[in-house]
């Protein structure tokens, strides 16, 4: 098993998700469309890539379209077309339908050039027709087809940032539902996944029914035993000597078994041992590396994306509210009910209907794994994220209740 800190894994490096993979595989074999949910770094891309690899071995066609960079429905159709480029019967039919764009055969065109040409021929008047034909061509294959559309929620957020974006998002989701439901039992099986929540987004748009044909499957964190087993397997593979209890101490330091964080912690500990000429890692080293490396400058690249994703997901007002909630939960131990009331009162003069904004933000923060509900409010399930946020605000943050008291 190799150490992997920034890429999806499959084959011999796929670890700790066999039960979830079995559930997803059975859904796909049964022809059921799935919405794969779960917070960032939980391994969603790895599980769909591994499923695709295994199904290809059973004579399936596996298409993977990453639409994070898409800003229009035309872009999404072109991304799916690029994913289908290696499947000659599909790409040749699409080329024939748009023959005026091509002076060469599909065999002579690379996948990226194919996408560029297809995208040039798509517009607001024809993307639906060509998209539907592309899906019908997938359904017409002798082999069954699994289509994964990754980062669909980010694409929808890209749409929402444009003029008339809400209408375009509703239109696209309505089209996609109708296109898949209009095919027969040979329809390509769809898996939609993403690093931000699709369900909170469609609720905010008032169209939760547009994704009711997708059966949700949530990918949760690894449990303690799985995290320890992964850590010990990595240590064995890299011949890294560790004191008894080091793997458990690493899990306790993280506080939550996010697979990427387990991998990243192991990589940083291994580097620490190499840089310091250590032949044996101890439990004390675990806390040292956690506080000085994972929470230090070199760990920022791993964690700063959590804030950037919020900026991508939320509008300006909701982003302000989110940062207040996270700073409060990190520095005060939780975002309590009284803190929620104080936040509502403080922001009521500047944000209309602030209560609903707070509820929307909490919905996103819980769905995407930043916070979890508890008896008296909300708290961080991950110690790593809590300490990172606390380090940023601890020295210059005044609690919401104190600010409320000072105002009154």
Structure report:
The chain has 408 residues and is an alpha/beta fold. It is built from 19 helices and 8 strands. A hairpin with a 2-residue loop joins strand 7 and strand 8 (377-379). Helix 3 packs antiparallel against helix 5 (111-121) and helix 16 packs across helix 19. The longest helix has 17 residues, at 165-181. The chain is globular.
Helical content band: 55-70%
Beta-strand percentage range: 5-15%
Number of helices, where a helix is a run of at least 4 consecutive DSSP H or I residues: 19
Distance between the termini: 59 Å
* Count of beta strands: 8
Biggest sheet character? 5 strands, parallel
Uncertain regions: pLDDT < 50 for 5+ in a row? none
Sketch the topology as an H/E string, one letter per element. HEHEHHHHEHHEHEHHHHHHEHHEEHH
Tell me the structural class.
Answer: alpha/beta
How is the largest sheet built, in terms of strand order? 2-3-4-1-5
Question: On the 0-100 scale, what is the average pLDDT?
Answer: 89
Gyration radius, in Å: 24 Å
Shape: globular
Q: Can you give me a brief rundown of this structure?
A:
The protein is α/β, with parallel strands linked by helices.
Index terms:
408 residues; alpha/beta; 5-stranded parallel sheet; globular
Write the layout of secondary structure elements.
Blueprint: H1 18-29, E1 34-37, H2 44-57, E2 61-66, H3 73-84, H4 88-97, H5 111-121, H6 127-139, E3 145-150, H7 152-160, H8 165-181, E4 189-193, H9 198-205, E5 215-218, H10 224-237, H11 246-254, H12 259-275, H13 283-294, H14 300-313, H15 316-332, E6 335-336, H16 337-347, H17 354-367, E7 372-374, E8 377-379, H18 383-393, H19 400-407
Parallel strand pairs: 1-4, 1-5, 2-3, 3-4
Antiparallel strand pairs: 6-8, 7-8
